[in-house]
Amino acid sequence: MTIYLSRRGFCVGSALIGFQAISSGAFAARTEDGTIKLGLVAPMSGPNARYGAFSLRGAQMATKEINSAGGVGGRKINILTGDSQGTPVEGVSATRRLIDQDQVDFIIGDVSSSVTLAMQPVVEDAGVLLINAASSNPMITYKAGVGGFKWTFRNYPTDENRALIVLQYAAEKKGFTKYAVLSVDTDYGRAAIEFTKKYLPRFKSQILTEDYYKEGEVDFRSVLSKIRDSGAQAIIMYGNADSTPIVGRQMIEVGIAGKIPLIGNAEFNTASSIKAAPKALEGAIEAAAWIPSYDSEKSRAFVDKFTAEFREAPNNHAYVHWETVHLLAKAIEQAQSIDREKVRTALSNIHYASAVGEVTFDDHNQARLPMILLEIENGKPAIKGAYSAEIDYPK
Amino acid sequence: MFYTIIEQVVNGIVSGSVYAIVAVGMTMIFGVLRAINFAHGEYYMLGTFGAWVAIDYFDLPYPVAIVIGVVATAVIAVVVGNFVMQRIVGAPAEAGVLATLGVALILQNTVILVFGGGYKFFSGGYIEPVTLFGFTLAEQRILIIIIGLIVFVGLELMVTYSRMGKAMRAVSQNIECCAVVGIDVRHVALWTFILGAALAGLSGVLTAPVNVSVYGGMGELITFKTLPIIIMGGLGNVRGTFVAAMILGIAESLVATYVGLQFRDTVGFATLMLVLMWRPHGLFSAQARF
Fold this sequence. Notes:
The structure holds 2 protein chains of 2 kinds. Chain A is an alpha/beta fold. Chain A is built from 14 helices and 14 strands. Mean pLDDT of chain A is 87; it is low at 1-5 and 20-32. By secondary structure, chain B is mainly α. Chain B has a single domain (2-122, 146-278), classed as ABC transporter involved in vitamin B12 uptake, BtuC (Orthogonal Bundle). Chain B has helices at residues 2-33, 40-58, 62-88, 93-115, 139-161, 163-173, 175-181, 185-211, 218-232, 238-258, 264-278; strands at 120-121, 129-132, 135-138, 213-214. In chain B, a hairpin with a 2-residue loop joins strand 2 and strand 3.
C-alpha cells in the first residue's frame, strides 16, 4: 500500500513539475521580444518529408540572409517549425501549437493542399497571417481574400493554370488525344485531374483509365499493365516526387518506358528522379512553378548558394520557401511594423521582384505567377516556355 | 483479356510472396507468444535500412547488404526479445499489444532521428527486366519468389524435424505442458521472435530494390497489410498464412486492374471481414486453436 501511494505521489509530483516547465516556457516565449516569430508548417516526417526538409532549408537560408544583413527594421527573424506529416490532422495541431504555445506572428505552410485547406480556418480564427508557398489546389484562393478567408495568401501558381498548359502542350505539340490518369489520392492530385477534365473537350481528348494512388504506395505494376493495354498515349500524373522513381522503374518493368510518357507534375525534372529510371522519364512533360535550371540572375544565384551550403541542388519547395520568406520580410519592411493587419495590407499592395518575375496579389490573395513548362530531353529538362493564365474565379 | 488476367495473377503472386515472408514471422510469433507483434513492420524497415546503410555508406555489393540487413535486424531482435518479448510470455493480451506498439514507436522514431524522415534512394539489387513465359518481370522479383519458396520449405522442414521446431510447435499448443516436460518456454519464445523478425528483415531487403524508397515509416503499411493475412490464415498457422498471402496479393492485383488503384488497400480488410463472418478462426483451421 505504501509503495502504491508513493508511486502515485511520484506521478503527481512529476506531472506538477511538467506543468511548471510548460507554463514557465510559455511565459518565457511571451516576454521574449525583438524577434519576429515565423512559424513554418511542413511535412518534416512521413511520405512527404523530403519536401519538408527542402522547405525548411530554403526558409532557413532566407532567414540567415535577412538576419545577417541586420534583420527587418532591426528585428531578427526566428523560425519555429511544426510537423504536419503531410496530413490535415497533424497540420492543424501543428498550426494550433505554433499559434497558442509559440505565439508566432506569421505562418508559412503547408506543402500539401489538403493540409493548407485545413489550416485556413484555424489561422482565420486566430487572426494570424498565413502565406502559403507551395500548395497548388485552386480552392485555397477561391476561398481567400474576397472569397472569405482574409488571412490566407498564396505565393504559388495553381493547378488550374497547370492543367491547362500541360494539356495544351501535349495536344498541340505532341498530338496526344488519349490519356491514362495516375494521380495521388489527395486534394492536389484529384483537383488537378478535375481541372484537366474541364479542358479535355477543348483539345478533343479523352481519359481512358483513371486511377489514384495512396501516398506511400509502392506497387504500380497492376495499374501500369492496365494502362499499357488501354491504348493511352500518355499518363497524366499529378503526384509526389517520392513516387516518381518507383513508377518510373515499374514502367520499365512492364515495358511502357519510352513508349508512354508521363505528363503533369511530380518532379520529373530532378536529377534523382531521372537517375532512377532514365528510360521512363525521357519525354516526360512537366509544368512546374520553378526549376533549378531556370534562367534568371536571381534564380542562378539562389541555386549556387543553396548548393554550396547544403551540398545538394535545391528543389522547387526550397526555392518557393526561400522566396516567400523574403517576400514576407519585404512586406514587414513596408508596413514598418510587425502588426499583422498592417503587414497584411502591405502584402496586398506589394510589388516584389521574384526570381521568376514580379509578384503582385489579386483580390483573392493569389499571387500572379507563371508556370514553367519543360520536357525531359536526353536526360535533362529543357524549358519550353513560361505561361501565365488569368484565373476565372467562380462567381 | 485472358492474358491480362494471367499477368495480373503473376503480379499478385509476386506481391503475395513478399507478404508471405513477412506474415509467416508474425504468425509464428503469435503462435508462441500469443501476442500480435504490432512492431513487425518495423523489423521489415530495419532490414531495409541495414542494407541501405551497407550500400550507401560502405559501398558494399547487394548480396553482402542482404546479409548485413538480416543480421542487423536479428541483433536488434535479440535486444528487444530479451528485454520485452520474453516478458510477454504468459502475460495478459493487452500487455503484448501495448509492449509491441511501444516498441514499434521507439524503433520507427529512432530510425527517423538517426537518418532523418526523408525518403532514401535504394540503389542496390537486380532491377533489369527479363521476359519469362511472355511476362516481363524485374530479376529481383524472380529472386523474391524463389527465396520465398525456399523460406517456406525451410520453415516446414524445421518445424517438422528439428528439435527447436518441435519445441516451437509444442509451446504454441500448450505452455504449461511444455514447462512440465522441461521445455524452456522463454528460450523458445526468444528464438521464435528472433527468427520471425529476421524473416521480416529479409523481406525488407529483398523488396527494397523494386520499391526504391527507404524511409522510417515504411513498416506501418506492412504491419497493416500483414494483420488481415495472419488472421485469415488462422493465427499461428504457417501454411495457412502462405495461402492467405497469395490470395490477398492476387485479389489486390485484380482489384487494382478492374476496380481502381485507390480501392486496393481496402481489399485486405474487406476480405478479412468476410472471412471473420463465416470462419472466425481463419480459412484453414478446422476449429479454433486458441
